[in-house]
Design brief:
single chain; 269 residues; alpha/beta; 11 helices; binds 6-sulfanyluridine-5'-phosphate
């Protein structure tokens, strides 16, 4: 867990995207990633335009959008998404959860219908296949000449998941194999950090009220995950997108996440 400020970590983070992210988090005073799990492309764009000032990252699941309504093409949507990221100074995280051998994920990340590497600053991968998955994804970014970063899934939020413990420890070892590309983890707690390392932990399963969703999702509060468990970014989906006033709700989560972070730093945790 880090009691260092996002600002100071922004100066030394080993990955370029990590430095950009930590610095915009400090500037905008937000550690909120909104998960826009919505199937209508236009609704996603208008929501992000409205909550843009409150967030540091917009997380997408592009494969849930049918692209039959406007904007009807994937390229049109991703261009509009990139323009919003520029306008409001947030990063785009495609939550693709790659889980195959290096050669296959290379084709999935760089091509297909979504061309994820072209527009998403961040994506994530399971460690199950071994280090070839990291190498394959990195090759895509290098070949395209774009600066990208990877989060490895070390522990999921859902009940009965096989992550955490030894799995997380082994995933951490794998991440240590490429500290310029792997910027951190999807996990439920801070990870063991050696001298010179700085892992950004992004945490889903965050809600201010509910405890679960009836399908295995488990929720914790921003204070629990950021102050007590040492995570860096809260990922909130239905807590915001399911609210009547989404802009006010996003601000409520931003404030809760930021207060938890300020307390963590003040407490020197
Ligand atoms: O362990 C995980 C990892 C992820 S990325 N648990 C998760 O819930 N997620 C994602 O976070 C999930 O795919 C969804 O997009 C989001 C949580 O949404 P919510 O509506 O439950 O906040």
């Amino acid at each position: 867990m880090s009691s260092r400020t996002y600002e100071s970590r922004a100066r030394t983070h080993p990955t370029a995207i990590g430095r950009t992210l930590l610095s915009l988090m400090a500037a905008k005073k937000t550690n909120l990633c909104v998960s826009v799990d919505i199937t209508d492309a236009a609704t996603i764009l208008s929501l992000l335009d409205a909550v843009g000032p409150s967030i540091c990252v917009a997380k997408t699941h592009i494969d849930i959008i049918p692209f039959s309504n406007s904007p009807s093409s994937i390229a049109e949507f991703t261009a509009a998404l990139s323009a919003l990221a520029e306008k409001h100074n947030f990063l785009i995280f495609e939550d693709r959860k790659f889980a195959d051998i290096g050669s296959t994920v290379k084709a999935q990340y760089g091509g297909g219908v979504y061309n994820i590497a072209k527009w998403a600053h961040i994506t994530n991968a399971h460690s199950v296949p071994g280090p070839g998955i990291v190498a394959g994804l990195k090759e895509v970014a290098e070949e395209l000449g774009v600066t990208r970063a990877l989060l490895m899934l070390g522990e999921m939020s859902s009940k009965g998941n096989l992550g955490g413990g030894e799995y997380l420890a082994k995933t951490l070892e794998m991440a240590r194999g490429d500290t310029e590309f792997v910027m951190g983890f999807i996990a439920q707690c801070a990870v063991d950090t050696r001298e010179g390392e700085d892992w950004i932990v992004m945490t889903p399963g965050v809600d201010l009220g509910r405890k679960g969703d009836g399908l295995g999702q488990q929720y914790n509060t921003p204070d629990r995950v950021v102050r007590e468990k040492g995570c860096d970014v809260i990922i909130v989906g239905r807590g915001i997108i399911g609210a009547e006033d989404k802009v006010a709700k996003a601000e409520e989560y931003r404030k809760a996440g930021w207060e938890a972070y300020e307390k963590r730093v003040a407490e020197g945790r």
